[in-house]
Design brief:
Elements lengths: L3 H6 L7 E2 L2 E2 L1 E2 L10 H14 L9 H21 L7 E4 L2 H11 L9 E5 L8 H10 L2 E5 L9 H7 L4 E7 L11 H10 L3 E5 L11 H4 L3 E5 L10 E5 L1 H6 L10 E4 L4 E3 L13 H17 L1 H19 L5 E4 L8 E6 L4 H10 L2 E2 L1 E3 L4 H7 L4 E5 L6 H18 L1
Parallel strand pairs: 3-15, 5-6, 5-7, 7-8, 8-9
Antiparallel strand pairs: 1-2, 4-10, 9-10, 11-12, 13-14, 14-17, 16-17
The chain binds 4'-deoxy-4'-aminopyridoxal-5'-phosphate.
Length: about 400
């Protein structure tokens, strides 16, 4: 059992006032808050070892390089990658997906197929559409049912020897659905297709084991798991990363440059052109250490309790409809209230100190499926409490009274 008050004391922002009210932060799906150890580690880097990495022989450069590479090793261990050079630092999930989609340009031909799902964030749709435009490959979509679960029988029908890559999220940001990715991966492999998993919403809640999953690529962002913005990870199997061309050219990614011909560095540097977010890379390791200290079993137990309590309390509100009722879901509740626009609720509860997300959550096809303009989304983290849920319920009730 977590000592929630002790955990909350690690997050200075949770005692801030917003609009004169104590902050209730339920927009964790967009970005998580940061514990003091993470905030301190950023300052410590700039105060004590700031230097460019992989270049200098001087001491600071070596200290910064060591810290960056130690962090890569921590992340390798955290996701159980076989080699540390399979762990690439990126600026985030979006960058990682674009890197892979771009790399597939030379591997696809007209008539090949790319499979995405109906539950994707725009950043796991648009790069693949752009790839299909470049290559004249065809984009196929795994549909979902009314609960917001992927229809696996339809997935089976889409798979064929034309399928070259399947790309789905581990957990949906808009509805919280946890997808059966192990089954999705093994079925794609059976027809010889590669698989990319968008783990942006999974890593705050669980520890992915990329070898057990057997995915070819797994991408995520640091900022959703207590780390800073502007840093993320692309895991790729060694064979795949060797097969893909570099995404950006520049310093650090080369072996030798002449005007006649350039040869590229080995993994992971082939994909890490230019000066990276050094502090971000180092501090992502600190964030992962913090989350492991809290413990993912504890995190999941707390979040499940919040999900159950939040669902029970929300459905007490007249006219409230939960969108996304998958059997297997994480601590995200998307909902609408009959006759009221989500934006109006979001604006009023914000004045009462409650931060929830309103809108399409970068997943317009999901909103189209349910024929709604958007939802109100409360996404809980392990540092949230039932008392905060009570405060949200009171605020929503007030908003409904004002708006009806
Ligand atoms: N995929 C999913 C499922 C997400 O929730 C997000 C962030 N909302 C992204 C991709 C994009 O992540 P980022 O903006 O950090 O690149």
């Amino acid at each position: 059992m977590l000592d929630i008050q002790k955990i909350r004391a690690d997050f200075p922002i949770l005692s801030e006032k917003v609009n004169g009210k104590t902050l209730v932060y339920f927009d964790n799906g967009a970005t998580s808050q940061k514990p003091q150890v993470v905030i301190d580690a950023i300052s410590k880097y700039y105060q004590e070892i700031n230097a460019n990495i992989h270049r200098g022989v001087h001491t600071l450069s070596q200290l910064a390089t060591d810290a960056y590479e130690i962090s890569r090793g921590k992340i390798q261990n955290h996701i159980n990658a076989k080699f540390s050079h399979e762990v690439l630092f990126t600026s985030g999930t979006t960058f990682g997906i674009n890197l892979v989609a771009n790399g597939f340009t030379s591997l696809l031909k007209e008539g090949d197929e790319v499979i995405v799902s109906a539950l994707e964030h725009h950043s796991n749709i648009v790069p693949w559409q752009m790839l299909c435009e470049r290559t004249r490959a065809v984009l196929k979509v795994i549909p979902m049912n009314e609960k917001g679960e992927l229809i696996m029988e339809e997935y089976d029908k889409l798979l064929s020897d034309r399928t070259k890559i399947v790309t789905v999220n581990h957990i949906s940001n808009a509805l919280g659905t946890v997808n059966p990715i192990k089954e999705i991966i093994s079925k794609a492999h059976a027809v010889g297709a590669a698989v990319l998993i968008d783990g942006a919403q999974a890593v705050p809640h669980l520890r992915p084991d990329v070898q057990a999953l057997d995915c070819d690529f797994y991408v995520f962002s640091g900022h959703k798991m207590c780390g800073p913005t502007g840093i993320g990870i692309l895991y790729g199997k060694e064979d795949w990363l060797n097969k893909l061309p570099p995404y950006q050219g520049g310093g650090d990614m080369i072996k030798e440059v002449t005007f006649e011909k350039t040869t590229y560095a080995g993994l992971p540097f082939k994909f890490e052109a230019g000066t990276p977010n050094i502090a971000g890379g180092i501090v992502l390791g600190t964030a992962i250490d913090y989350m492991n200290e809290v413990g993912f079993e504890n995190i999941q137990a707390q979040e499940l309790e919040l999900l159950e309590y939040g669902t029970k309390r929300l459905i007490e509100i007249e006219g409230l409809n939960i969108v996304g009722t998958a059997e297997n879901k994480t601590s995200v509740i998307s909902f609408n209230i009959k006759g009221i626009h989500p934006y109006d609720i979001g604006t009023i509860v914000d004045k009462l100190g409650i931060a929830v997300r309103t809108g399409h959550h970068c997943a317009q096809p999901i909103m189209n499926h349910f024929n709604i303009p958007g939802t109100i989304r409360a996404s809980f983290a392990f540092y949230n409490t039932k008392e905060e849920i009570d405060a949200m319920i009171e605020a929503i009730k007030k908003a409904v009274m004002m708006l009806s």
